[in-house]
Predict the structure.
Amino acid sequence: MKKSVAFVALAATLAASTACDSFGQAMTSHQDVLARAAGHELSIDKAAALFALNPRIPPQPDVVNAIANLWIDYTLLATAVAKDSTLNSLNLDPIVEPYIEQEMVWKLRERVIKVDTAISDDALRQMLESEGTGLQVKARHVLLRLPADATPAQRDSVVQLAQQLRQRAQGGEDFATLAKQYSQEPGANQSGGDLGYFGKGQMVAPFEQAAFGLQPGQISDLVETPFGLHIIKVEDRKMASFEELKTNFREQMKERMVGDAEQNYVKALSDTMNIEVKPGAYEAVKDLARKPSLEISRRAARRELVVYRGGVVTAGEYTRFLQRLQPQQRSMIVTQTDDNLKQLLEGLARNEILVAEGGRLKLEVPQSQIDSVRNEIRTQLRAAVVEAQLVDIKPQEGESVDQAIERRVMALLEGNIKGDRAVIPLGPISYSLRDQFEGQIFEQGVTATVQKAEQLRAATPADQGMVPQPQPEQQLPQQPPTAPTTGQ
């Protein structure tokens, strides 16, 4: 049975955007630099020149930030390999510790949650009837991503395209063909946006409400979810029989029973702890979700976001938690309501309470299990080094080691821009590298790079430099494969 979200805190994050005075001071002393990492610098001119390699990549602040972060990751990884080819000296504790905590909570769950989940067919049939479950729809959709930090102009552009596609679909154009051409859902270019049959409770609420409100052949209005804007076409509706539904529905009911028991246990344990979200925490959460790589001062890291009897969740703890999330999860945080953010913040506090309770009961994660996770992370990292061709970096004639690193990193980054080489995102490992080595992006440099790239674009004939679009990112796992899921 899947591990329930009641016992593992959902995503969250945090810290004040004005937290680091030294960051602002550093910007003023590097007028011509976009980013710095382990003593290396990426100049504004070099960064702007990268946009000339692919005219389809827009010179926008978010794109410049993405390129700068990749350059930092590659540079720090190459530096770490140059210092220790085995990567045994790399500190993996920031990645391993959350895994240990999750395992501790899972062991607590196994210890305290005892539920009889045997359900007869007659009882299951009654549950099914009371739930009103049985109706299924078959649908396709077109998804257009809507970045959390999109400007009003960017949002208007996405909405306008979505409206045009909806009108074309209503005008009789083949919906599957439109999905193949325009949908930004992975695999849509092959599936035509086909979602197959699904029942209630399987999709996010706005999507479900729209889909189940349509008859076969009808096309929805624009539907916004945390994933973006959707256009939905329902192709069929049917009522599934009890025999078709009972296996999956029984598992759903078992999970609900266990989940209810967990919720009750967590509530009983945490209600006496007086969990309180501090004023200003919601905006702090959103601020750092936009820029998780921003280094905050020690004073800012101690800022209290949530307090409870005997403990506190600080900005620093939230920052480390945020840095382990997928980019899509961080983007979703920015769009959440205060009520949702309150649940996230309180959830992390409850997770700390559960970990402490596990410690009180003297539960432990075997060292062999921890070592196995640590070794798996290191194996993934070494594989990334090989794929990025950052091994055995040797200076050419007249080069220093630092110059050889810069040459190899720029070759990799240029290949990413052209679409010739896959992007190697490092996930949480990136922040572990930044903890060990210096890495910084200068906001003033981002603005200057955008301006410089636009100037270069304006001076380049439109028929030059046309190259294929970059291929989809091939991402490394964001956490060890053996780590428990978080339900996010």
